[in-house]
Amino acid sequence: MPPYFLQHYSEFSSEAKQLSKQWLTQLILYGGMSHFCRWFVGRVTMRTIQERKTKIIMIHFDILTLFPDMLSAYFEDSILKRAQENQLIQIGLHNIRDYTTDKHHIVDDTPFGGGGGMVMKPDPLFRAIESVRADNTHVIFFSPQGRVFNQSIAQELSQRGNLLLVCGRYEGVDERVRETLIDEELSIGDYVLTGGELPAMVLVDAVSRLIPGVLGAEHGAAQDSHATGLLEHPHYTRPANFRGMEVPDVLLSGHHANIDQWRRQESLRRTWQRRPDMLERAALSKADKKFLVQLKQQAPPAEDADG
Ligand SMILES: C[S@@+](CC[C@H](N)C(=O)[O-])C[C@H]1O[C@@H](n2cnc3c(N)ncnc32)[C@H](O)[C@@H]1O
After folding, report:
1. Which of 108, 144, 197, 275 is catalytic?
2. Which residues does residue 93 pair with via DSSP β-bridges, in sequence order?
3. What is the pLDDT of residues 134-152, one digit of tens each?
């Protein structure tokens, strides 16, 4: 209230005093109401956000390993850390050794029939898998003998709610574990690693980034290589001229239709040069096919691909 008003209040006529009292009451009333309304709307909005958060479709990864620390470092950083904080994914790490019952927590033994190497004993694995899995859990064992993991398997797995990943070590697991408890065996490529921990990180990473909200809204996982059936087009960022190397003019033009066409054609060019096998399965428009015909007439693939 301005000091002038207070200083001269006693000089006001009774009518003016009455009027100013009314204004003051209304001011307090409306002020209070608007404050209440803002508070109320804020509360309702917060509750809606919280409710929405709890309704987000989430994927739960459980990982059985002998080396949980190897995995935790990777999952506690960057995008996967944020995805867990935002409750889009959950990752549970379980040490297989915790499911042993003997004094020395032994998880492996020599193979029947002799020969080198050790085999993961069935008992700790049975105990671990049976205690961690839920009814709808899909149990995956990593093995160089499994189906080779790719983008469409990642897509398929991103639709599941619960995945239990079993990381092998030594020569692998006792065959009875594989036969009884494993739904699927996955390999990450035709080479042999020392354990299933790297494959588990690969799978969790590839599957998580397909879950809506895990990548920033501006990044479309749908545009990545393999997701479209093609390899992605090249990318450039500032400066437009780096050591005399120029960014293609079209990308600086601001003409979105031309940029889209350039990206599509570069994507086709790259796929034809590096992975022509992918073109046989890709969904191609008439314009794509016409562009490929022109490309093939110009020159053979520059970089040889083996597949
Ligand atoms: C040394 S490997 C065992 C290989 C096994 N003796 C064989 O020849 O099939 C130990 C563990 O590493 C993991 N592993 C190795 N290479 C892998 C690959 N390419 N993909 C997925 N997992 C792999 C598996 O969990 C496997 O049980």
Report:
1. 144
2. 63
3. 999 999 999 999 999 999 9
**C-alpha of residue 215 to centroid of ligand 1, in Å:** 30
- Do 26 and 103 sit in the same domain of this protein? no
d(CA 200, CA 215): 19
Residue 305 inside a domain? The answer is: no
For the stretch 53-72, pLDDT in tens is: 544 658 999 999 999 999 99
How many structural domains does the chain have? 3
Residue ranges around ligand 1 (CB below 6 Å): 142-145, 167-169, 171-172, 187-189, 191-196, 199
Contact (Cβ atoms closer than 8 angstroms) between residue 234 and residue 266: yes
Check residue 55 and give its pLDDT. Answer: 45
d(CA 219, CA 230): 17
Please report the pLDDT score of residue 217 as a whole number: 63
CA of 62 to the centre of ligand 1 (A): 19
Is the pLDDT at 52 greater than 60? The verdict is: no
Same domain, residue pair 23 and 84 = no
**Average pLDDT for the chain:** 89
Active-site choice (169, 178, 209, 275):
209
pTM score, two decimals? Answer: 0.81
Is residue 209 annotated as a catalytic residue, yes or no? Answer: yes
pLDDT for res 114? 97
Shared domain check, 179 and 126 = yes
- Residue 109 designated active-site: no
Question: Catalytic annotation on 144?
Answer: yes
Could you confirm whether 183 is annotated as catalytic?
no
118 and 192 share one domain: yes
- 227 found inside a domain: no
The tokens describing 158, both together, are: 């991103």
Active-site residue (options: 171, 185, 232, 266): 171
- CA-based Rg of the chain, rounded to a whole angstrom? 31
Q: How far is CA 305 from CA 273, 274, 293, in A?
A: 7, 5, 19
Q: Is residue 112 part of a domain?
A: yes
Work out the pLDDT band at 302, boundaries 50, 70, 90. low
